[in-house]
Amino acid sequence: MNSSASVGEELPDGRILYRLDSRKSLDLSLADVASNGTIEVFPYVEEKGLLFLQFRKRRLVISAGPFIGLIPLTPRILIEVRPKLPIPNLARVLDAAQRSLSTLPGTDRLYLADHLASNSILEFLAINLIDAIHPVLEGGFLKAYTSKSSLSSHPRGKIEVAGTLRAWSSGQQHRLATTYHEQTLDIPCNRVLKAAMQVVLQRLTPVNPNKGLVIKAINKNFVQFPSIIGVMKDYDKSVVHDQISRNLISDQKAYYYRALEISLMILSDTGISLENSGSDVTLASFIVNFEDLFEEYLRRVLNEQSPNGFFVRDGNKDGRRYLFDDSRRHMAQPDIVISAGEGRTIVAEVKYKEKPNRDDINQAITYAICYRTSRAVLIHQKPPEKRGGLYRIGTMNGIALEGYGFDLGATDLDEEERQFGEVLFNLVPPLEIVVA
């Protein structure tokens, strides 16, 4: 990993932001990170492997691993870890891999509004909506006075003369027409919140356990909304937008603002950009293990295109086998195993880097020998302005080792995925037909 001194950016809240590329390091003075002589590093940073820290004399070297996102290091220092290479299709990759964005407690950031065409983004907004609605349920709902009219023998409010005379002329001398004001929860703000939860429940697909938990939590919040809060009306969104822009909600109910902003995004089919900073909405900071994401994404791409009779397995799970013929102490666990019957197998390793190194080559050749195959592939992310696709690394003792540069930044990611699947399935040895 390359290490270099970095200059931080002071944020409006007084915290210092440092930017760092994945798998790179930055070098800080202890004076930069210490507060009152101590370094208060959040325990989850190292416990979860979000960042790796090394102390060298009076310097602190911070190394980024596979996680990308905004990571709080101490109460006053934030580290923004960016992907090694540009990924303009991150939400698309998350959807295809059926993965979720994780959040860190107590860390918010500003996002740029973007198009919402992603199950993963909808899930992320739903997680933030759950958090934003909690104060509403705890602190109390907004209420408003609405005008009511009544024709009754037990009048309340102000007598409405014209209405009363009409009632008397029709023989209802025992009734009075009145108007009065009554508090109600059935107002635009509450209807917007309720409608946003309904959209999440209707559209969020539970493709993994985390999304199932999100749906369960949203449903729990939804049923806690009083039944008197009705269906959202056509004008509700514009009314709420005006209330937000003009700061018309009372200070006592200021917790409504965040919940309403998120709800309007969901209801307007608007999402957020995961790649670009902005100033449109405050949400929790996300993190994602991009190494795991890239691997799972490619495996699911292959599964979607798998021809009849072909099987795509995860070597870390159902596709693994013992490494040695005479020992069960070690396992061979290639990232991807493609097979189409006895003797028709290839193995592939996925590396979150621009090109494979010697250790990667040794690992791939070892797996090829273990799986009795003559083809192995090292898949990595295509560097900018370099040719992607399949290329030969070398041949050893009858084993052909290929490299494949996958372009995550492709304008047409569907076509990139199609070509990837076609190439890898064509590497599987053909079925030998024995003629008697």
Offer a few descriptive terms.
436 residues; alpha+beta; seven-stranded mixed sheet; six-stranded mixed sheet; 12 helices; 22 strands; 33% helix; elongated
Molecular structure report:
The structure is a single chain. By secondary structure, the chain is an alpha+beta fold. It has three domains: 3-82, no CATH class; 109-143 and 186-288, no CATH class; 306-427, no CATH class. 33% of the residues lie in helices and 32% in strands. It contains twelve helices and 22 strands. The chain has helices spanning 30-33, 43-47, 90-97, 119-139, 161-169, 188-203, 209-223, 236-245, 256-267, 290-305, 358-370, 413-427, and strands at residues 3-5, 9-10, 16-21, 25-29, 51-56, 59-64, 67-74, 77-82, 102-115, 144-152, 158-159, 176-184, 270-277, 281-289, 311-313, 321-324, 327-332, 336-339, 345-351, 375-381, 389-396, 399-406. The strands form five sheets. Strands 2-3-8-7-14-9-13 form a seven-stranded mixed sheet. Strands 15-18-19-20-22-21 form a six-stranded mixed sheet, with helices on both faces. Strand 2 and strand 3 (16-21) form a beta hairpin. Helix 6 runs antiparallel to helix 7 (209-223) and helix 10 (290-305) packs across helix 12 (413-427). The longest helix has 21 residues, at 119-139. The chain is elongated. The two termini are 59 Å apart. The mean pLDDT is 88.
Task: Give a short synopsis of this structure.
By secondary structure, the protein is of the alpha+beta class.
